[in-house]
Amino acid sequence: MRPGDGTPVLAKRAGLYREAPPVPALAPHLLCRWVHGIPQGPALPVAVVPDGCVDLLWVGGQLVVAGPDVTAHHPLLPPGDPVVAVRFQPGAALRWLGLPMSEIAGLQLDLREFGRPWARGLADRIGEARTVAGRMARLEAELALVAPRVAPPAPEMALVFRRLGRGPEEAGLAALRDRLGISERSLRRRCHEAFGYGPKTLDRILRFQRFLRLAAAGEEAALSGLAAAAGYADQAHLTREVRRLSGLTPAAILGQLGWQDERVAA
């Protein structure tokens, strides 16, 4: 899908994007595996929006760690070999990479810069596979060999991510602190380590992701109802936050998701 006015396309709506569950051995550590590319034609401007997660991508012969984004970035997706990648479970990248996620928020870095022994030669071994499926299988097989030596993510941080992601009825930072039995300062520190930013920023990002999920499902009749269901104070609040986090208007996003003009304007 490509808007005619040059507006970047949501990355998951551009070209060919496919997600699948990880192999069972990696399920405690990975949310999913994914492949993304465009088979032919000019490079496509895309909007990669924040989701509170960290990804490991094989692209152009390199393994790249995409740190947790705070706002969208708009790269050009060139035609050619698809990106082969995995997405870490919330908080899992802290254990695999060995440093707080706040140090790599908004960055994309070569995996070799982290100095992890398991990463030596990994990009070359993946590149030896001749097909996309073969590269993905090799990436997962290599990570599965390492997984028994890596502790799974802290369950407390998984709870934070899950509760904030469910919606306004599950959210509430005071309730989370009470549930975990920790102070506001401790929650903020642990969120910076696990997710790259504090709980308030994480809450904003997960609310935006909730908006995207609800919009894709198409169950709300109008933008105002969508704003309320996602947990925004009103439609104006939704518009401000969507612009800040994606660089797009809600109308542009809904148009890419197939909403009709009369529903977007309502």
Structure description:
The longest helix is centred in the C-terminal third of the chain and has 19 residues, at 199-217. The chain is of the alpha+beta class and 266 residues long. Helix 4 (155-166) crosses helix 7 (199-217) and helix 7 (199-217) crosses helix 8. The strands form 2 sheets. The chain has a 6-stranded antiparallel β-sheet with strand order 2-3-8-5-6-9. The protein has a 3-stranded mixed β-sheet with strand order 1-4-7, with no helix packed on it. The chain has helices spanning 92-97, 122-127, 132-146, 155-166, 173-180, 184-195, 199-217, 223-230, 235-246, 250-256, 261-265; strands at 9-10, 16-20, 30-37, 44-47, 55-59, 62-66, 76-77, 83-88, 108-110. Helix content is 41%, strand content 15%. The chain contains 11 helices and 9 strands.
Instruction: Give the SSE string.
Output: EEEEEEEEHEHHHHHHHHHH
Q: Which strand-content bin applies to the residues? A: 15-25%
Low-confidence runs:
none
Mean pLDDT, nearest integer? 90
Radius of gyration: 19 Å
Helical stretch count? 11
| Major beta sheet summary | 6 strands, antiparallel
Terminal CA distance reads 24 Å
Shape designation: globular
Q: Please give the number of β-strands.
A: 9
Query: Biggest sheet, strands in spatial order?
Result: 2-3-8-5-6-9
Fold topology:
Elements: E1 9-10, E2 16-20, E3 30-37, E4 44-47, E5 55-59, E6 62-66, E7 76-77, E8 83-88, H1 92-97, E9 108-110, H2 122-127, H3 132-146, H4 155-166, H5 173-180, H6 184-195, H7 199-217, H8 223-230, H9 235-246, H10 250-256, H11 261-265
Parallel strand pairs: 1-4
Antiparallel strand pairs: 2-3, 3-8, 4-7, 5-6, 5-8, 6-9
Helix pairs in contact: 4-7, 7-8
